[in-house]
TrEMBL record:
<keyword id="KW-0479">Metal-binding</keyword>
<dbReference type="InterPro" id="IPR050584">
    <property type="entry name" value="Cholesterol_7-desaturase"/>
</dbReference>
<dbReference type="InterPro" id="IPR036922">
    <property type="entry name" value="Rieske_2Fe-2S_sf"/>
</dbReference>
<dbReference type="Pfam" id="PF00355">
    <property type="entry name" value="Rieske"/>
</dbReference>
<dbReference type="Pfam" id="PF19112">
    <property type="entry name" value="VanA_C"/>
</dbReference>
<keyword id="KW-0408">Iron</keyword>
<keyword id="KW-0560">Oxidoreductase</keyword>
<keyword id="KW-0001">2Fe-2S</keyword>
<keyword id="KW-0223">Dioxygenase</keyword>
<keyword id="KW-0411">Iron-sulfur</keyword>
<protein>
    <submittedName>
        <fullName>Aromatic ring-hydroxylating dioxygenase subunit alpha</fullName>
    </submittedName>
</protein>
<dbReference type="InterPro" id="IPR017941">
    <property type="entry name" value="Rieske_2Fe-2S"/>
</dbReference>
<dbReference type="InterPro" id="IPR044043">
    <property type="entry name" value="VanA_C_cat"/>
</dbReference>
<dbReference type="GO" id="GO:0051213">
    <property type="term" value="F:dioxygenase activity"/>
</dbReference>
<feature type="domain" description="Rieske">
    <location>
        <begin position="24"/>
        <end position="128"/>
    </location>
</feature>
Length: 345
């Protein structure tokens, strides 16, 4: 093990509040970090620095100089490294101290003292592996089908909400809210306002779907665990939305901290040739604004809920997907807390 900063292990409650470890999370849109640029972010309750090396390689470091703990994000970008502004200590993209200008040859040099996270850039977004063991290899990442299918055209929508990350994901595992909260939407005005649901298992997660309606409203959602957690759903489109069939969304929600969430929605359609061009034109000129209006309805609702809203509920059959998600994450948080406690005992 490298000599990184040791901290008190997280409890199950802390992991449940700030996000699951040992998986990939979407971090930010790729354009947040321009060539030669740096970006400070808070994710999973910790501060991180993203920077692009001179060759374009993206790096993600804990935003803490190993010397005195000053934020590296206030330092200087030196091509393949960052120099802390406080005392000039230079840290490479893998977290290794490369130079201590104030005392050349001191014992800090050559040691990997800053946590560096594996990162991938996918469909316009940065994904990072948040592991409990900084020296372990990341798990494989199987990307959502619509983000790698050449017959799919997608737009990434990014926002930050002042609501717990669980609220954002639970909102997506609650298809019935589309018939009420989004009733005046251009695509969710149809369908019944009552329904029955079921959970259907898959080899990568589960579907939560209406049993008595399909292809009318927000009638189903699939929750997937493929190295990263994400959801896929489809909403039927009226003919005025142009060719391409149903409108799909791949969604991810990453905790910023216990009270705030970074949300990622890839809005997509399966289109080729001239239909692809028509879809992208209509999206930018007409549909994007309407989609933001729907997203704003979700944001306002979730931000208006009390932080402990999920502690005093009266759930019913429509909430089976939400309950399944909570049990899964609660069990995972407790298991990871035990793992962390065992590694430091």
């Amino acid at each position: 093990m490298v000599n990184r900063l040791q901290r008190t292990p997280l409890t199950g409650d802390e992991i449940f509040a700030t996000g699951m470890r040992n998986q990939w999370h979407a971090v930010c849109p790729s354009h947040f970090v321009e060539p030669g640029g740096m970006k400070r972010l808070r994710r999973l309750g910790e501060d991180w620095l993203l920077f692009r090396q001179s060759d374009g390689t993206l790096r993600m470091l804990a935003d803490r100089c190993p010397h005195r703990g000053a934020p590296l994000s206030q330092g200087l970008h030196l091509g393949d490294r960052v120099a802390c502004k406080y005392h000039g200590v230079q840290v490479g993209g893998d977290g290794t101290v490369l130079s201590v200008p104030g005392m050349p040859g001191c014992n800090l040099e050559g040691k990997q003292l800053v946590t560096s996270l594996p990162v991938r850039e996918v469909a316009g977004a940065v994904l990072a592996w948040f592991g409990t063991d900084p020296d372990a290899e990341p798990a494989p990442l199987d990307l959502p089908d619509p983000l790698v299918d050449e017959d799919v055209s997608a737009f990434l929508c990014y926002a930050e909400w002042s609501a717990p990350w669980r609220f954002a994901l639970e909102n997506l595992l609650d298809p019935m809210h589309g018939a009420f909260l989004h009733h005046e939407s251009h695509s969710m005005f149809g369908g019944e306002t009552s329904a029955k649901f079921r959970i259907r298992e898959t080899d990568r997660g589960f579907f939560f779907e209406k049993t008595d309606q399909r292809g009318v409203n927000f009638d189903w959602v699939e929750f997937c665990r493929t190295g990263a957690d994400w959801v896929d759903l489809e909403i039927p489109y009226p003919p005025t939305a142009g060719p391409g069939g149903s409108f799909g969304i791949v969604g991810m929600g990453t905790p910023i901290d216990a009270e705030n969430t970074a949300v990622f929605f890839w809005r997509y359609r399966r289109v080729q040739g001239w239909e692809r061009d028509v879809w992208r034109f209509l999206y930018r000129t007409t549909l994007e604004e309407r989609h933001w209006e729907v997203l704003e309805q979700d944001r306002v609702m979730l931000e208006s809920m009390a932080a402990d809203a999920d502690q005093a509920e009266n759930l019913y059959q429509h909430d089976l997907g939400v309950m399944r998600l909570r049990r899964l994450y609660r069990a995972q948080a407790d298991a990871q807390a035990r793992e962390l406690a065992g590694s430091t005992s």
